[in-house]
């Protein structure tokens, strides 16, 4: 099968590409290497996802990405340096390949940054998604998996969060764009018979996690003996979902789409295990063998006090069975993080912390 992944050099996308390649499929990766974080991280993600050593001689961004494209192109993988806001550039890719199914993971992520630049979030998350659906219509592509987010639930008071809960009151531009994506996706399903699964991800963590996310950010700051930004009293809680379980859910959603017609489903992918901020920090401290220095700050606009996924529907429809307890997932993340940190130090990206 020929699968197109948007954001295939990111955290979730690179893991998905790795699994699809190992199963013998052809992967088309579209990624714009956005400056939201260091493009070098995405280069290493890409190399690891195709089974190559992440060792790379860096110079400047444009040169490095073109070099990466050349070095990774193969009979079963191709990378396109492309922004999903550019429908003309996207169309050329669709013209060059027969695409069986699209997994749309590319987005501007993050609740807090979306409050600072909401118009850019609208451009990427809404217009970018519509560009893909317009091309699905044009090229008769009928299978589509789309990443949504637990943030659409906002300050939902009913616990755990169910797909049937009302989500008409988002509290951040990011959440609003994800809700819009679900609604517009249904329009394209209804009008053009595009079979679609919208996956609401709940706080994904694990190896290759984005550096701006709390677990990765806290680990790095603690290791560097720097203060961590600690919002609130530590009682806020999240349904942390390990990357392997998320990928399992995505792969099962792909299989479900391939085996069924006339599909439009919204599905929670969580761990169904709630961990508060104090517990999360304690696990990190234990694994690092170091105590955190906290900079206590008030809760920020757009943050929600709790997330918790009802995964009954996922279990029923796609046989989703997450099995990574948080303490085990943190150990797996930390093994990757410490190895990566050691490698980065040797490359001179960070000062020696010893």
What keywords describe this structure?
alpha/beta, two-stranded parallel sheet, 354 residues, seven-stranded parallel β-sheet, Rossmann fold
Number of helices: 12
Shape, principal axes of CA atoms: globular
- CATH architecture field of the domain at 2-203 and 243-270 and 307-323: 3-Layer(aba) Sandwich
Query: What's the overall average pLDDT, rounded?
Result: 94
Largest sheet: 7 strands, parallel
**Strand runs, count:** 13
Distance between the termini: 48 Å
Give helix and strand order, one letter per element, not per position. EHEHHEHEHHEHEEHEEEHEEHEHH
Record the SSE blueprint.
Layout: E1 2-6, H1 11-22, E2 26-31, H2 39-49, H3 61-72, E3 77-81, H4 87-96, E4 101-104, H5 111-116, H6 118-139, E5 143-149, H7 173-192, E6 195-201, E7 204-205, H8 214-223, E8 227-231, E9 237-239, E10 241-242, H9 243-259, E11 264-269, E12 274-276, H10 277-288, E13 293-297, H11 312-318, H12 326-347
Parallel strand pairs: 1-2, 1-4, 2-3, 4-5, 5-6, 6-11, 7-10, 8-13
Antiparallel strand pairs: 9-12
Question: Can you describe what's shown?
Answer:
By secondary structure, the protein is of the alpha/beta class. The protein has a domain at 2-203 and 243-270 and 307-323: Rossmann fold (3-Layer(aba) Sandwich). 45% of the residues lie in helices and 17% in strands. The protein contains twelve helices and 13 strands. It has helices at 11-22, 39-49, 61-72, 87-96, 111-116, 118-139, 173-192, 214-223, 243-259, 277-288, 312-318, 326-347; strands at 2-6, 26-31, 77-81, 101-104, 143-149, 195-201, 204-205, 227-231, 237-239, 241-242, 264-269, 274-276, 293-297. The strands form four sheets. It has a seven-stranded parallel sheet, sandwiched between helices. A two-stranded parallel ribbon has the order 7-10. Helix 10 (277-288) packs across helix 12 (326-347). The longest helix is centred in the middle third of the chain and has 22 residues, at 118-139. The chain starts with a strand and ends in a 7-residue tail after the last helix. Mean pLDDT is 94; it is low at 346-354.
């Amino acid at each position: 099968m020929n699968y197109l992944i948007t954001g295939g050099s990111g955290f979730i996308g690179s893991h998905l590409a790795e699994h699809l390649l190992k199963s013998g499929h052809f992967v088309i990766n579209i990624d714009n290497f956005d400056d939201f974080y260091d493009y070098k991280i995405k280069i290493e993600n890409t190399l690891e996802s195709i089974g190559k050593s992440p060792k790379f001689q860096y110079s400047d961004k444009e040169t490095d990405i073109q070099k990466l494209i050349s070095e990774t192109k193969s009979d079963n993988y191709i990378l396109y340096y492309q922004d999903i806001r550019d429908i003309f550039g996207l169309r050329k890719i669709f013209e060059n390949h027969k695409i069986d199914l699209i997994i749309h993971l590319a987005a501007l992520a993050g609740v807090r940054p979306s409050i600072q630049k909401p118009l850019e979030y609208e451009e990427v998350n809404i217009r970018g998604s519509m560009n893909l659906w317009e091309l699905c219509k044009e090229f008769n592509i009928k299978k589509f998996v789309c990443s949504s987010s637990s943030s659409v639930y906002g300050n939902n008071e009913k616990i755990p969060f169910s797909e049937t809960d009302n989500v008409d009151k988002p509290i951040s531009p990011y959440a609003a764009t994800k809700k819009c994506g679900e609604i517009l996706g249904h329009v394209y399903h209804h009008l053009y018979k595009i079979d679609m699964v919208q996956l609401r991800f709940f706080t994904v963590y694990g190896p290759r996690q984005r550096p701006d996310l709390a677990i990765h950010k806290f680990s790095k700051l603690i290791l560097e003996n720097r203060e961590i930004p600690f919002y609130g009293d530590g009682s806020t809680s999240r349904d942390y979902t390990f990357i392997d379980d998320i990928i399992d859910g995505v792969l099962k959603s792909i299989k479900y789409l391939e085996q069924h017609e006339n599909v439009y489903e919204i599905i929670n992918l969580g761990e169904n295990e709630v961990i508060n901020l104090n517990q999360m920090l304690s696990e990190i401290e234990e694994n690092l063998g170091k105590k955190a220095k906290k900079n206590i700050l008030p809760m920020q606009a757009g943050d929600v006090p709790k997330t918790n996924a009802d995964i009954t529907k996922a279990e029923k429809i796609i046989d989703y069975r997450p099995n990574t307890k948080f303490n085990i997932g943190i150990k797996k993340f930390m093994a990757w993080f410490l190895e990566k940190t050691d490698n980065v130090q040797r490359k001179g990206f960070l000062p020696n912390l010893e």
